[in-house]
Amino acid sequence: MTEAPPEGMTISAAAEASGLSVDTLRYYEKEGLTLHRPERSSSGQRRYTQENVAWLGTLVMLRRTGMPIRDIKKFVELYRVDGSEADRLTILERHREHVLEELAEVQKHLAAINRKIDYYEEKVLR
Amino acid sequence: MTEAPPEGMTISAAAEASGLSVDTLRYYEKEGLTLHRPERSSSGQRRYTQENVAWLGTLVMLRRTGMPIRDIKKFVELYRVDGSEADRLTILERHREHVLEELAEVQKHLAAINRKIDYYEEKVLR
DNA sequence: GCTTGACCTGGAGCGCGCTCCAAGGGTCAT
DNA sequence: ATGACCCTTGGAGCGCGCTCCAGGTCAAGC
Asked: Nearest to residue B31, comparing CAs of B5, B8, B63, B54?
């Protein structure tokens, strides 16, 4: 098997694909949130594989559901530990619990917003 | 009609009732987020009425659904404008839209979390 | 009269998550 | 070889939403 030369997307393409900014990609990498660091081209530029980009999707999933950077870091560090699957599962289950609580609270407040809207609709439409 | 002396809860009671911290209550007041500033006792301490506390509930509702302080400020300022009910309604409707989009996105990511959990459950339980 | 404790003010400080900047390098088309 | 353009790094800066602090006042209980 021959080593393929580092082909793959540039950082701006990876940014577009993931919905993150170029700066954020470099920031995440610096913070140790990447599963694998992207390869570099001969001139030192990052080249993102599909796997790299897929992991960015995981990061977006965790961030956009409110997991702090430092917790994501702990999570990704488990990927470097053999047999840590049960621990990763625990973290995900805890996070799911947290997300469900958040959702429930927001929905509760949403109901209050709806009541306030109803009140104003009646008031405004006479 | 006689003026009642300023009876009402202390700031710590209002904090407990609203779920906010004492510091946050003073901060919100400073930022102009209060509908009415609480009265003061003879020694200058804040005394919160039920109405004051109810408004804190509105602030919590807006904050916990992600409305930034500066937008809440615009909203409360409309309460000082006669006939601004339609504008308040518009703000609430826009905010509801925003909340619904947020909820949809979080739920989408929650589904991805569930899939990842399923994957690990299979892996861990052999 | 003294202590305790809750409150007051103005302002500084902080954690988070980016976001931006300066200074420079490589690649390519004209 | 000039310019455009995208990339690199380290580090500074920022917006947000609190949170904390120093130094002081006041009221109640012992």
From this structure: B63
